[in-house]
Design brief:
55% of the residues lie in helices and 14% in strands. By secondary structure, the protein is of the alpha/beta class. The longest helix has 17 residues.
């Protein structure tokens, strides 16, 4: 995999400088933006692999960017907000990930690499919020669920941001078997992108 082409959107130039420096090798920042509208224009012009976007920016913030471009590229929100509502709104808007600005440079690079590969990523401190929403929606859900117990286990771990390898280790199955489960889940739910699994779980719940 070549360098990940990134659009970096944040209204604080010093913060953009810091993130760009943290990304270093393996990433190429192809454009920067200081507002939601600038970010949307940059995404349409550059067609990046990934967008790293602040939640709070002039012109509608990261939610506007995710709604406008989440179907075109992978949006990762990088923010100081630990509010559950902000996280869920970002996912519902189309973001593939939600990371805190306190994330270390090494963890940020690792998470963004995974996001560029199509995996949902969340700061570990926020994973409990996502799972809490799963449980809340599961209680409200009715009717038969199309997923097997094993598939729901895989879905939960994908939503936590685990890699396929770590999911396999947790469930004592091979990485290839995890990939097969993800493909089956996507097929059953009529989804095409792995990050859509998180959105599905939030919107429909699992038992």
């Amino acid at each position: 995999m070549g360098a990940v082409r990134v659009v970096l959107a944040d209204d604080h130039p010093i913060w953009r400088d810091g993130v760009r420096a943290d990304l270093a090798d393996g990433f190429t920042v192809v454009a920067e933006a200081s507002s939601a509208d600038e970010a949307i224009v940059a995404i349409h012009e550059q067609r990046p692999d990934l967008v790293v976007c602040d939640l709070q920016m002039p012109g509608g913030g990261g939610l506007k960017v995710a709604r406008a471009c989440g179907h075109e590229t992978r949006i990762v929100v990088l923010t100081v907000s630990e509010q559950e509502s902000d996280l869920l709104d970002a996912v519902a808007a189309g973001a593939v990930g939600y990371l805190l600005k306190s994330t270390t440079a090494a963890d940020l690079r690792a998470a963004l690499k995974r996001a560029a590969g199509g995996e949902p990523v969340f700061s570990p401190a926020l994973a409990a919020l996502v799972l809490g929403e799963f449980r809340r929606l599961a209680k409200a859900a009715s009717g038969a669920q199309p997923l097997s117990e094993r598939e729901r286990e895989v879905l939960q771990l994908v939503a936590r941001g685990h890699t396929y390898r770590s999911i396999g280790e947790d469930l004592f199955i091979s990485e290839r078997t995890v990939e097969n489960h993800v493909r089956n889940i996507l097929r059953k739910l009529h989804l095409s992108r792995r990050q859509e699994l998180v959105r599905y779980a939030l919107e429909h719940g699992i038992e």
